[in-house]
Amino acid sequence: MKILLHICCAPCSVYPLSVLRDEGMDTMGFFYRYNIHPYTECLKRQQTLEQYAGDIDLKVIYQQGYELETFLQNVTFRESRRCRYCYHDRLRTTALLAKRGRFDCFSTTLLYSKFQNHEMIHAIGEAVEKDTGVSFYYRDFRPGWKEGIETSKKLGMYRQQYCGCIYSEKERYYRSE
Fold it and tell me: Rounded to an integer, what is the distance from CA 131 to the centroid of its chain?
């Protein structure tokens, strides 16, 4: 089966890629970047993925441009629901690319993180499947959380400390006085 895997960052891709390849899936990656702030952080994540993809012979589609304003416009005044928008946009964009590329299905490395809303991602993936006609490949990759972390550390990967958006950056670093 040919699958397009949304990749949020290289460290989160280690375990899911291993599983999908072990299952015999013909896997290609897609790096979505519009939600990642600041731009220098986006570049660090992309460069880390480019290095890793080269090391493991993974083809990756890298989103062009940097539409941060669109992301911000869509979550302003809806900050408490920003993750829903972000998950939906990333999964829908991946599914539409998969459709154009005649992939059998699409999935996401977001299903690997214990910090993401797994149930919401699953539900949105299924809704996007219905909307686009491209199958959503659901897999709970969280059991490999520690293995993925250990491997990414051994490989010396850049490991970010927050999800990616400006709001998650604030939650990670800002402490009220």
Answer: 20
Closest CA to 56 of 121, 116, 10: 10
Q: Using CA atoms, how far apart are residues 99 and 4, in angstroms rounded to an integer?
A: 10
Tell me the pLDDT tens digit for each residue of 103-161. Answer: 999 999 999 999 999 999 999 999 999 999 999 999 999 999 999 999 999 999 999 98
Determine the Cα–Cα distance for residues 28 and 32; give it in Å rounded to an integer: 13
**pLDDT tens digit sequence for 8-44:** 999 999 999 999 999 999 999 999 999 999 999 999 9
The C-alpha atoms of residue 34 and residue 128 are separated, in whole angstroms, by: 19
2-173 topology per CATH: Rossmann fold (3.40.50)
Residue 65 has a CB neighbour count (10 Å cut-off) of: 8
Burial class of residue 79 in the structure, from the number of CB atoms within 10 Å of its CB (0-12 exposed, 13-18 middle, 19+ buried): exposed
Domain spans in the chain, listed from the N-terminal domain onward: 2-173
pLDDT of residue 175: 84
The model's pTM: 0.96
CB atoms under 10 Å from CB of 135, counted, come to 18
- The C-alpha angle with vertex 170 and arms to 38 and 122, in degrees rounded to 5, equals 85
Contact 5, 107 (CB under 8 A): yes
